[in-house]
Amino acid sequence: MLKLTHLSAILFSGADAGSFLHSQLSADVLGLADGESTFACYCEPKGRVLALMLVQKINEDYCVIMSSALAVAVTQRLAIYRMRSKVVIEALDGYTVSGTRVDISSEPALSNTHAVRMPGSMEWLVIAPREATENSAVDLQEEWRVSELNRGITWLNPETSGEFLPQMLGFEALGAVNYRKGCYPGQEIVARTHYLGKVKRHPRLLNCKLENSPKPMDKIKILDDENDHDAIVVDCSKGADGNTCLLAVTRMDPAMPARQVEYKDETVTVL
Fold first, then answer.
1. What is the pTM for the complete model shown?
2. Phi first, then psi: what are they for 238, rounded to 5°?
């Protein structure tokens, strides 16, 4: 297993854990069967995504995996809205989140270890005590993040949290937004944007060979056959082959081909 330092795990337990998360997240949490998982957005009242979460039901509890950089701020914010709900929010600080591409569905459960399958893939996230996972090579973690980005998964970070609607990030395609469920923070704006078709900015995945890796919220230009289009970097990771994988948000029509990327003094071909 590969230790993924960019991810953390949180446990929601108590009689109202399911209804509480259902009222706060964009996915149908109460519709999950035991052991089932779903992506979900935690949004602010204006519909902007504060964090992407992976939620799994475990008996009557719920395990949430999200960005380590956002975990403390998000749990503190959720605790404010707990009010009289019977729910305990516990950061699993003594555990790490690891990734594996080995099918562990038929493996016997290990003591104090829990596995969550990534929706739509054969990858698993494993929550285990810190001492249980030793492989934390940075280059392998970057390769894992490249794989995530190529599937449209960005967990966000302090720079990008609260900047984009779910549709701008392509989170609908991950199954993170359910338009038939009840209210949650930002639901009215997210739903109106969907039904009126007024999303002007779209996600664009770009693989290229940049010497300098853009940072979140950096501005780049995407060139088609005739024009250039402004874009904002949401996430970026560089693989072992030296290729840079960028997830950007742009007003560029999704049907237009992306030929080149311009960042600072570099102009490179999109692979």
1. 0.94
2. -115, 125
